[in-house]
Specification:
- This protein is of the alpha/beta class.
- Helix content is 38%, strand content 13%.
- The protein has two domains: 153 residues, Aspartate Aminotransferase, domain 1 (Alpha-Beta Complex), CATH 3.90.1150.10; 242 residues, Type I PLP-dependent aspartate aminotransferase-like (Major domain) (Aspartate Aminotransferase, domain 2), CATH 3.40.640.
- Helix 6 links the parallel strand 5 and strand 6.
């Protein structure tokens, strides 16, 4: 069977064979509960957890006791935001976040709004960036938490997080970041960033689904976080529940492999990403890059194609696995809130494709995808009553160059 080319690595990634190999014993013989203190099954499981915790800590540049295991970034983000809010209510009720955050940050913030918290959702500029000045200006004496993602899952834009965190800490606010898309793609060091809380999930960097971690800085006075669920008191009482040993072992191995490959993979992916972009924009007019190309993950490309619907492109390319700027967070055709936040209307979202390159993509795949995109866009535009091909004789088309192209109709 010929499987579609997978270029949707922001949605999830395949498991690296080294990760699977590390997990297998803990799905079979080594099935112990790490909380069992009375026998070798428990001890072996506990050793595996300790090793995984050290591997996560090594990748993030923190100490092992600052790593809490969770079920993924959704849980880590909810735990950080709701947990800080509930435990620090007497200090203030104001939270600052970003319009382009993942729903697992925005929705908990909106939930807290209904409970009497005030949330400032900062806009981004046309490139998808927020500045430290914007964050500083939004902070008040009542601000308890600033939550700004490191890298965006749709447009790959990397925020100036170290400056933002410095501005927040100056005012005594706790800093949380959703680093889900950044970890394993660019260096992520909690001390260089100056963050207090950082969320990751294994399946975005070649680990298994359903396991992640929350980094919680050890500081004085101690960060207070209310747990989302209570029970056996695992993970320092902040995250009760029997640990997902095979998943956590997989997360640990995913971190070890990512640390090993980080720099060479970043270079390789950026080269492939730039090749993909060049092969598309050199052959099609009316193509816009969404989000900054400078402050961007090496593996992300997000393009809008004038006069073409993203969904139509995806349906016409059933041999490529890609996402469009609509329908990203539900089965509906809602335009993406991230692309909308760039301020150029719904057209941008409805005509966009997100390319997420990954560890297992090859140059041949990149060339094949570029070929298919060029062909499909050409075909769909031929059918569009609104599209007029640029006339070669007249020189530059109104659509060429295209950073400032508008095509409202
Ligand atoms: C995927 C993703 C999440 C959610 O991760 P889960 O493992 O599904 O909980 C959160 N934030 C970002 C930026 C993501 O890309």
């Amino acid at each position: 069977m010929n499987r579609p080319i997978y270029m949707d690595n922001h949605a999830t990634t395949p498991i690296d064979p080294r990760v699977l190999d590390a997990m297998l014993p803990y799905l079979t013989d080594q099935f112990g509960n790490p909380s069992s203190r009375n026998h070798a099954y428990g001890w072996r499981a506990e050793e595996a957890i300790d090793e995984a915790r050290a591997r996560v800590a090594a990748l993030l540049g923190c100490s092992a006791k600052e790593v809490l295991f969770t079920s993924g970034a959704t849980e880590s983000n909810n735990l950080a935001i709701k947990g800080i809010a509930a435990a620090n209510r007497e200090k203030g009720n104001h939270i600052v976040t970003l319009a382009t955050e993942h729903k697992s940050v925005l929705d908990p913030c909106h939930h807290l709004e209904r409970d009497g918290f005030e949330v400032t959702v900062l806009p981004v500029d046309a490139e998808g960036l927020v500045s430290a000045e914007q964050v500083r200006a939004a902070i008040t004496d009542r601000t308890i938490l600033v939550s700004v993602m490191l890298a965006n899952n749709e447009i790959g834009v990397i925020q100036p997080l170290a400056e933002i965190a410095a501005a927040a800490r100056e005012r005594g606010a706790v800093v949380h970041t959703d680093a889900t898309q950044a970890v394993g793609k660019i260096p992520v060091a909690v001390n260089a960033l100056g963050v207090d809380l950082l969320a990751i999930t294994a399946h975005k960097f070649y680990g298994p689904k359903g396991v992640g971690a929350l980094y919680v800085r050890t500081r004085t006075p101690r960060l207070r976080i209310a747990p989302l669920f209570e029970g056996g008191g695992q993970e320092r009482g902040i995250r009760s529940g029997t640990l997902n040993v095979p998943g956590i072992v997989g997360l640990g191995m995913a971190c070890a492999v990512a640390a090993d490959l980080l720099h060479e993979e970043a270079e390789r992916l950026q080269r492939l990403r730039d090749r993909l972009r060049a092969r598309i924009v050199d052959r099609l007019d009316g193509v816009t890059v969404n989000g900054s190309l400078v402050h961007r993950l090496p593996n992300n490309l997000n393009l809008s194609f004038a006069f073409v619907e993203g969904e139509a492109m995806i349906m016409a390319m059933d041999d490529v696995a890609l996402s469009s700027g609509s329908a990203c967070s539900s089965a509906s055709l809602e335009p993406s809130h991230v692309l909308r936040a760039l301020g150029r209307g719904d057209e941008l979202a409805h005509s966009s494709l997100r390319f997420g390159l990954g560890r297992f993509n090859t140059e041949q795949e990149v060339d094949a995808v570029a070929e298919k995109v060029v062909a499909v866009v050409g075909r769909l535009r031929e059918l569009s009553p609104l599209y007029e091909a640029p006339r070669a004789a007249s020189g530059a088309s109104p659509l060429q160059g295209s950073e400032d192209t508008s095509w409202s109709h």
